[in-house]
Amino acid sequence: MKPPPNKGVELQIHDLHRSFGHNSVLRGISLTIPAGCVFVIMGSSGSGKSVLLRHMVGLEAPDQGTILFDGVSILDAQAMAQIELAIVFQHGGLLHSLSVGENIGLYLTETLGLPPREVNDRVNQAIEQVGLSVTQDKHKLPADLSGGMKKRVAIARALAINPGILFYDEPTSELDPITAVTIGRQIRQLNQRHGTTSIVVTHDRDLALGIGDQIAFMTQGTLSRPQSPAELSQTTELAVQDFLQAGTREDYQIDSNPS
Fold first, then answer.
1. For the chain, what are the domain ranges?
2. Domain 1-84+164-245 - what CATH class?
3. Are the C-beta atoms of residues 57 and 201 closer than 8 Å to each other?
4. Percent helix / strand / coil, the chain, rounded to 5
5. Cα(201)–Cα(89) distance, rounded to whole angstroms?
6. What is the per-residue pLDDT across 167-209, written as a single tens digit (0 to 9) for each?
7. How far apart are CA 68 and CA 63, in angstroms?
8. Residue ranges of the alpha helices (H) in the chain?
9. Which of 14, 30, 32, 137 is deepest in the core (most CB within 10 A)?
């Protein structure tokens, strides 16, 4: 059975704060992510983007501020139950004792309680949507998969529940450049096909500029104004310029005559 097309979910964040002891990690984050958008949150390690992600998906509670999905507070459990939310974890999060098909279908069976035939149809469709083979890959164990294939299975597992909003946590980490481009193209393609709001947290500059409708740069717990890739590449913000331009050949040169 083919799931119906999604209407993406709008996400709003208002004045979000979070501290750990004396360390202020989120400093008044406010943000609106339009429904159906591919929105990228980019930043260096330690900038606070992973903490922000955990708040957006409800794994952590803020000290102050609100998070709304289509105007519904993330704290309203009954209303939030009507909004399908899925996460593609950085390292895949696959259960090693289950096959590819069993990993993808686990939530459908155990949480949604769908009948076996519908689970099988959704699993097969999700496998094909991410460019894997039902015949060759469905019954493999995670240990038999490459890093790129594990990412695809994690995406397929998320797609199988037909989410209204889909979060990606560093989807191209530990991948070679060619495989990273493949994953990025699939994120873009799946967003266009389903209309699902896609939020990508990454430090991969090429991915961000390649797939993002809007990109916000995170530094020291604050978030820049969302911009298109073209706008971001012309930014005058020094922190963003340094991040985007780092890694030229000159950056790796060593002064042969240190003072």
1. 1-84+164-245, 96-161
2. alpha beta
3. no
4. 40, 25, 40
5. 10
6. 999 998 888 888 889 889 889 988 888 889 999 999 888 899 9
7. 16
8. 49-56, 77-80, 100-110, 116-129, 134-137, 147-159, 177-194, 205-211, 229-233, 238-245
9. 137
